[in-house]
Structure formats: C-alpha cells, structure tokens
Amino acid sequence: WGKLALEGKEKGDMKKVLVVGSLNMDMVLSVDHHPVPGETIIGDGITYHPGGKGANQAYAVGKLGGDVRIIGCVGWDNNGMILTENLAQAGVDTTAINRMPEAPTGMAIIDVDKKGDNSIIVISGANACLTPDLLRKQKASVEWSDFIMTQLETPIDTVLELARMAKKADKCMILDPSPARADLPDELFPLIDIMKPNEKELSILTGMPTETDEEIKAAADALLEKGVSKVVVTLGARGAMLADGNEKLFFEAKPVVPVDTTAAGAAFTAAMVNGLAQEMGMIQAIRMANGVASIVVTRHGAQASIPDRDEIDDLIWNY
Ligand code: RIB
After folding, report:
1. How many CB atoms sit inside 10 A of residue 49's CB?
2. Hey, which of 57, 59, 105, 110 would you mutate to test ligand 1's pocket, going by the most ligand atoms within 8 Å of its Cβ?
3. Could you give the count of Cα atoms lying within 13 Å of 55 in the half-sphere of its Cβ?
4. What is d(CA 191, CA 184) in angstroms, rounded to the nearest whole number?
5. What secondary structure does DSSP assign to 13-49, as a single string?
6. Binning pLDDT at 50, 70 and 90, where does residue 148 land?
7. Dihedral-angle region of residue 31 (phi above 0 means left; psi in -120 to 50 means alpha; beta otherwise)
8. What average pLDDT does the segment 237-261 reach?
9. Which of 2, 36, 55, 277 sits at 20 to 30 Å (Cα–Cα) from 149?
10. Considering the entire predicted model, what is its pTM?
11. How far away, in angstroms, is 235 Cα from ligand 1 center?
12. How many whole angstroms separate alpha carbon 221 and alpha carbon 226?
C-alpha cells in the first residue's frame, strides 16, 4: 500500500514540507529505572545524539526522501554545527536555520530505562530565540512550502504566528502538541488542520481522562469541537486513532520489542506528513507512520533511530 506511492517520486514531483521547531543535543543516560525524588541511582552510561522535536521531524522527512526545510535556532557553537550538519546529511535544507550568538544550542537530558521508556528535561537555549519577529522575516519559507509542521518546544507566540501565516497562505498546518500544555490559546485550534497528540498529551490538552478507547474518542471530539480539522492520536504499542468529525478509525501497530521510544512521536508525525506530501491518502499515510514508528522504538537515539526510504519499502512489502 505504500511502495507504489513512494516509488519513482523525486524531489521535483513532491509537495514541500516546512518544519518550524527545536534543535537540541540529546544527552542520553541509560538507567535501570527512573529515579524518584530523593533517590540516587547509578547509570549505565552516557551517549550524545542529535535531537530536538523539530529537528527529529525534519530529519525523518529527509531520510524518507521528502523535500524538507527547517526553520529553527541554534547557538554559535559546536553543538549547533553538529546538529545542522546531521540534518544536511539526511537531505534537509538547513539554509533557514538561524545561528544566534546570544544563546547556546538547546540541550535535552534523557533517561532511558530498561523497558525503553524515557523521561526528558529540555534546556531551551537558542530555541527560545525563535520569536514571531524572526519567523516573519522567514515568510519566504512559509510561501515555499505545502505542508507546515511544528511542535511546542519553541515559544507559543511563535507557534500561533506560524499557524496564522499558514492559514493566510493556505498551507496545511500540522501541530504535534509536545510537550503538551493545558493553556494553548483558543485562537490556535481552528488554525490547525491535523493535530497529533499521544494519549497523555491528549489528556493534558483537554483536561479529560484518556485511559479507555471511549475516553480517547471523547477527548479527540473535544479537540474537534475547539476547531481542529483532524486529530490523530498515537497510542504507543497499540497504534493510532484517526478522528475527523465523521468517523473514528483505529490502526494497529506491528508488535515489536522496544529498546528506546525517543523520537517515535516525531517520526510518526513526519512519516504521516511525508506520505501526504507524496500524495498518499490519510489512511495510507497513517499506516506508513505506524510502520516507521515501530522501527524507531527498536533502536537507540532520536535521529539515529530513524529508518530511510529503502528500509520503509522493505517494511511495506514484508508487513
Ligand atoms: O521527542 C524526543 C525529543 O524531545 C528529543 O530528541 C529531545 O531533544 C526532546 O526535544
């Protein structure tokens, strides 16, 4: 169901994807379990990986063969250069990355436990420099794009301004509302074409429980009522659910043994949008996204875990 859609497509034939968002250097600590307050534990080791929710999305679209550009901010430092170079190697257009002398590149400290579950602390650094003013200066990239993806690791005023610019320019606007917050401005919801929370984020966004399928459906309806056009909820090992106002469809994920779930959400969103940019329908794009996320969780690291287009073609044939 996916191979034909990807096969033979070259960048000139594809719709263009703009990612606006964060770039972080991830310091990943392997631990037996996450420490509780007051507890000291001995970790198994530290590794450094390119990350950031925005950069992870852009990297994934690039690896999957899409035509993608990122707007974001890094510091005038070594980490900023490493992150930019890593994106360029995946085929991402990095010309709209701003190097800010006044702040260091963002960092994330990530604990990954034996089950592959993580907890993350982000130090925003230069990501906080992506102001609405700076974004408006990069209007040409908004106009260049067909699909625009963002997350919530950059200032909320910038996210709102981006959504306004996207609506005015008639682009498809996708929000991965991570890290989730309960205080998103009401004006934002009707500007979003596709919102992609996981179950926990859905609960934070709506203030509603999301333990059961019925609760998840009701919380997704609450987002639709606020004006979002389509909601795609990722359900971890269970797959995903699409709610578009007419129906709710569940998509099962392939069973795998996870080692590190970092970047699974970003990879899902990126693969879904990349599928849409390559003219798949929503259902086909979500199936593709489920497949990509099922690979990501079996590997360590954020960008390091994202498969390329050939692996996806293999996956599709062997699904
Ligand atoms: O979702 C994973 C990402 O969250 C990491 O790469 C980290 O940088 C934080 O942004």
Report:
1. 22
2. 110
3. 32
4. 12
5. GSPEEEEE---EEEEEEE-SSPPPTT-----SEEEEE
6. very high
7. beta
8. 93
9. 2
10. 0.93
11. 18
12. 9
